[in-house]
Amino acid sequence: MNTLIVIACLGIAAMMSEVLGFKKLLLPLVVIGLVAGIVLLANDWGTAIRYYSDMVYFDNYAIAFSSLVIVLTLLWLIMAKEYFDSFSSKTENAALILFCLTGAIVMISYADLSMLFIGIEILSISLYVLAASKKNDLRSNEAGLKYFLMGAFATGFLLFGITLIYGASGSFNLHEISTYIFSNSEHLPLMVYSGILLILVGLLFKIAAVPFHFWAPDVYEGSPTLVTAFMSTIVKTAAFAAFYRLFATCFSDLSGSWGESLAVISALTMLVGNVLAVMQQNFKRLLAYSSIAHAGYMLMAIVVMSKISAGAIFFYASAYSVASLGAFASFIAISANGNEKLINLRGLVAKQPFIAGLICVLMLSLAGIPPMAGFFAKYYLFYGALEGGYLWLVLIGILSSLIGVFYYFRVIYTMFLPREDENEELPAFSFSNKALLTIAAILSVLLGIFPEILQGLL
Amino acid sequence: MLTLILFFIPLIASLLCSVIPREKVKQFALVASLLQLTVTIYVFTLFKTDIANQFAFNYCWIQSLGIAFKAGFDGISILLVALTNFLLPLIILSSFRNENENPKAFYGLILFMQFALVGVFTAMDGFLFYVFWELALIPIYFICLMWGGKDKVRITLKFFIYTLAGSLLMLVGLIYLYLQTPGVHTFDIQAFYNLSLTPEAQGWIFWAFFIAFAIKIPIFPFHTWQPDTYTDAPTQGTMLLSGIMLKMGIYGMIRWMLPLTPIGISEWGHTAMVLCVISIVYSSCMALVQQDFKRLIAYSSIAHVGLIAAGVLSLNIQGLQGAMIQMISHGVNVVGMFYIVDIIQRRMNTRKLSELGGLANNSPLFTILFMIILLGSIALPLTNGFVGEFLLLLGTYQYNVWIAGFAGLTVILGSVYILRAYQAIMLGEPNAKHTEFTGLNKIDKIILISIASVIIITGIYPKPILMVAQPALEDILVHIKYIY
Predict the structure, then answer these.
(1) pLDDT digits (tens, 9 = 90+) for B414-425
(2) Are residues B250 and B280 in the same domain?
(3) Residue A289 needs a FRET pair 20 to 30 A away by CA distance; which of A17, A74, A192, B342 works?
(4) What CA–CA distance (Å, rounded) separates A345 from A418?
């Protein structure tokens, strides 16, 4: 809980730093604040306290996911450092990111549907601005506008759903809703089912699942790459945490009504995301579609809804986000010469073998090849799905993993091919990008070999 | 402890390759692989034939999920580990003349491959087996990608996706078995052996495993990746693939498929057997018409391993013994064959049969050694190939006369295509277009002579191999026999 306050205050401090003149100290301050946030969270491990008449509930689930998003933000800051340095409106952006993080933590720890809504709004509104933060870039403006229009629609659905649930159960509180559903499971009004459906649409929209994914590639491509990296890792993790929390606490008894359709959506998301990724020539767009596909895998855990689901989502989100952040860092570095195409990676092995090796590790992790973290993450999901009797979903997962290999390996072998102009210099990787890549690769291997570090938590 | 040492020598050596100076790295790799060979010989001397799971190492890897890092040796494992560790120094030595732009990565990957292969052959835990199985794929992919021929990108990707598809099916099978284990689920192989699965489930598991192994081996109709990959890969990559890696598939059948799905095999084994026979006849015929010597050996390899797979599926001790000894013989012979291809290509700049001829005049030693390796691969008595193929055909004969009849064609067709190649390359008039064939250098001699001597020694006295494998194979058969 204290973490939430610390990070919110940090956001305000970031906004004030320009006026009060401690702009130079901002980055160290943010880092210290985030680390303090993790320490405060770790301190609460195992306590499960409900705050403010049960508005937020910090159980182990919330603590684990909050720590994950904060750690990911710290990793993200490594690559953001120079970007912020070169940016005129550094303080605003830092403040917006911190508000996003606040929203994410509210989304993770809510115990009340109104808090869920508030969390999503805090997160989204900051993101709309961030997506459009390259003021002079047409594509960035397009991304911001698209994201805003689509996001507003989705929020509308979500809000309508929440209202219907409230109408039936008379409460926003997750606990009370679940008691209501449990005790009236024989004769629930249609309102509940429509409410679930609408909430489902709203949330699926946020995680960009097929068929609610159309906004994602354009927004991901148009936004500044750093913001894309933030959206496709930290925001996605928070959205999944919120999704799972709601459906596990309130609607798991009714899984008959939404389980099958969600299973189909999960299968479609994996397939469509991966198939479309294969066709991309633009590296950033490829990562965007890959991020859609990974959401499909994580949905599997929500479909199955067993005792390992929370752990599976947590592990998958960590493995995927770490590798993905690394991949975005390499994209930022490599596209410094203005070429966002995949072929811009050519010659990397010859020119910078160490970097190329690190990118290989990350791609192998994203493709789910042992011994990388991505493999154990997929294994854990498949295991859960098979235990729950979803063999067909696992088979589709396997099929789409194979399709995934196709484009992740395209990244790998492109690096091995020679450049058309042999003498052309490749953009140099800055120290912070190198550092992030190294950390991401080490974490990907480490989590793959010793998955118990995270697997036992939830 | 010894098991761990066998794991860590190649692993640490492969990591060290990145810090050793460029000029020294090949010597370093050779020393590391020789050290590994020495330890293997030491393990062999300590090995007792009648005890299962020796030198066992068991470490709780992911406790809550019942996944253990459990490895050990029995008669089957030790023979394949010995094969791996015997061939690796030869493979490394064979690359000494290469002008390699990036030797650190090359030798690092080869040694890493060795680590993964030792892991596959000793893993006694399903999850661990799967991890090593996949791990072996990564180095070979990069070896083929970095040093392959001109069409390498397409071919290596096809190879990777093909084998990964099979492995993922196997993963589903393994998870299914895992979920069937009573109490706290476990991947332990003994727990898997003790399962009593329904006949229907066994049928499915059989196919999930069989396809995975059949792709690796490869067996018709899952073989299409193989000729291209073998032809396009660098010589050392081809040696690793054909000499050792395809043994993973056969080993997997013996260790992970037969004891687990006896009913599945009794139901579907016949279909699989027919596929093996088709594979033998088809690839022998393909080998007959090849012009490229390397591709010819690639097809002949499919024929040989098809027979090994048929021997395994015949489910009797002769067939399994034959499979064990033939795995070793084929591994040794095929590495020799591919090295001969390499020697010829290096000196003559071509592998086309029509462009070669009359090499015998220039180098008598090469002619003799080539002949010995060739005789081994067409299974002449007193060579290693004969022992294996005889036992394999005996085993398949007991299974079904017709199958044995068709499988036996491999011996006849095998002689035809190999002798045809030998004739075209070594005999006749020298082809005027090409440079003179120079004699063997020291490295060539070491490699070819050690291979030729293994061919003759195991051909005359195969008993030690048979004795080592016997108890372990009988253990495997016990799981099958109670069905009949």
Answers:
(1) 889 988 888 888
(2) no
(3) A74
(4) 10
